[in-house]
Structure prediction request, 857 residues.
Amino acid sequence: MSLTEYRVLPGPESYLPPAAASMGVVLPDKGSALVEGGIVLKEEAMEKIVDKLLTAKNPVFFPGPLVLWAWKEGVAEKAKAIKEMAEAVGAKIIPMPDYRPKYPMINPAIEINPNHPNLTIWHNKIDACIFVGVHCHYANVALKMIRGGTDCYTMALCSEAGHEDAMISLRDFRIEDLYTMTEMIKKRKGEGK
Amino acid sequence: MKKDIFQISPGFEDIMPAEYRDLIDNGPFEKNVGVSDLGSFKELLEEHPLCAGCGLALSLRLILASLPNPEDTIIVGSTGCSALAFPQVALHNIHSLFGNQNAVASGLKRALTLRFPDKVKDVVVIAGDGATADIGLDMVLQSWFRQENITTIMLDNEAYANTGGQESGMSPMGTVLNMAPKGKKFPKVSVPELARESGCAYVATVTPAQPKKLGKAVVRGILAARELGPSYIQVFAPCPTNYKFKPNETISKIKLREKEGTYETKEYITAEAQELFARLEEGKK
Amino acid sequence: MIEQRVVEPPQLFEAEKETQFITGSEAVREAIRRANVEMAISYPITPQSESMHLVGDLFAEGYIKEYFRGENEFAVMSSVAGAAMGGVRVFTATGGPGTLRAFEAFSTWAGARLPIVCAFMTRGINSPLTIQPDTIEMAFMLDTGIIMLHAETAQDLHDMILRSFMIAEQTEVHIPVGVFVDGFFVTHTRDKVDIAPADMKLPPYDPYSSPVPVMDMENVPFRQMRDPFVMKSNYVSYSAHASWQQEVMAAAERARKYIHQYLGDLIETEYPDADILLIASGTAVSQSREAMAMARSEGFSVGLVKIKSIRPFPEKEIRELVRNAKAVIVPEFNRVGWLAREIKSVAEDTTKIVAGPRVYGGMTMPPNMIMDEIRRCSI
Prediction:
């Protein structure tokens, strides 16, 4: 596949899928977002996230340590907003409390781990997921593995520069974006869509 | 009140796996617990993959339970069996490379002193005998020469256990191990004496057969490193897998060696450290 | 010490400059003076030592908060790693045998996502011992995962070091930057260097924008090993390690944008449409420029390509340039010709690439050597 044709789509992609960044996918500038490897306006990506969440059979939120632990100012509010958004969707929340490879193994019904994220996706038959509050490095490690081995549609809400390895990713994401998407979800549901 | 990093975000308590809730509710953070309290609090070491009867796993549990300030303790480890347990330790800890632990700890301690001049940040090195007495000995000694404010703890299982039981500098003379097919030709390296001569303020050799003594040494080592300079603690942690004894014999092996006089527990305390401990230990009473 | 104020990077980089006539080592000092570096760790090796002496002077003056001499390069690179994991902006430098003594540390720097900036004053590493200029150590460094910039001049050295902190510390990059410079030729010679006022410095490093947790027990998760063993014998463990390595490579890809932003294109060209292109990095560029001037005065169609970034490598740019040239000459200051290999690995037609001329062991490269190749290619 040539560099320009590479799209970041649900898998199972291959035995060892490449990093999207190595296939020519670039991170968006401020105000933009990534959808399936292409740069779009942030609002468009948010619409698409809402759409994917509402049309999935089993959408799940994966909050990571940066939001699971109220370690700095503003996190508790963000955590609350994440919970409200998940509730609006009717999505389950499965935490990623830390990044250790866990012995003897994780319980995939109740947690996800970046070193073997596929176990949780497979076990719970998750077809769409949201990464939020996961350190960028570990998110990328996990997102590639999910693309390689599952058909899950991955979305990453990133407060830094975003994630090429997710199918949809927002950058510089703030609590207001959660409120906006929750409103969009409620509105869409109210319309019976 | 607990530090914020130990607070689960409100609303997420019910989704957190039980061991994390347990750690927050019953863990050792800001509680002033010690080895005598084991069993009454949630330990920092979660399930780990070390062998049954592993002297190192037991010692590690005791060391972690003894930390005077776990909420502000950062551990630097090294390659070896203990490194398999460290991902499961609920503290910030570093595995960099085999043998460079005291060099990493030197940089880390100085960085943390720069960033948190008004806080106590204990940097504790916990590494095996191969890492400490062989491949990393130069960096261990140099960190002592430089008077780095770090505590160095050796988990001495008298072999390279993780790579399959090879001779280390800490194996007793005569022991037949891999890479010593005719038996080891030289005695255990005298690291405690090296520590004393290299400027450590406090040096102790202890064993998990005497947990309270071990705990006291860990506390003293850390207090000495905080206030005075480097400290060294050597913990005898026999390896049933490579020394081929039963997992339930670990403690009796230690006691036997002590009785034979082939593993001596001792303390070297500088006059300065004596004074410090007298002040601090008196203050506690 | 001059009172310094923090300014935004563009303000520092685009400030009105003063021209100083200084050595390469002094150019390093002036970069570090403005880089808001918190800690530096040193170890002597020729031809690097002078740079870190001068950085030590900055510590004595108060520009740097912590500085010490370590016990050997492996230990220094390990201490630097510890400092970076503790969340400070840290600088060091080495070269030649020191680079190889420390070699194991560099790939862990990249794997651990440490934004360390390290200068490499290159020299020979072979037996018999030599302290003379040679870029062979760069061949070994190519696959460690670190970003590699190659300075031609003292100005490059100054600019690359100062600006590398801004490249290395981007959250999505956050891997080390090695700034390589040919020892002696640049470090020990004087040149004009344009320098921003000394009362400005870069903004401080924010450790909590790191893509991995900082080891300070002040951020989450508190159960965190840098870096955890992914050693179970099963497919997902292997795949986690593979994905981790891919992410480090991806980080270098993401650096392209910031290299562009802070240092311009990854390559610079003069007469890129010429029949014969001289493609080089480091001081081989200066010798090539001399040769190009000679050749052009004799009527040859010769152009020059200076490669500034070796990792990430300007694949597309080089492929394009090689495609359009009739012949490509790659002069190098080392025995193995690593740059020629790199160029061949991206070129469509490798037969037009002349992997040389090369000198080593401290030899200089007379432009005539390159001129001879130009003549041969023109037959």
Observations:
- The domain at 31-187 of chain A is CATH 3.40.50 (Rossmann fold).
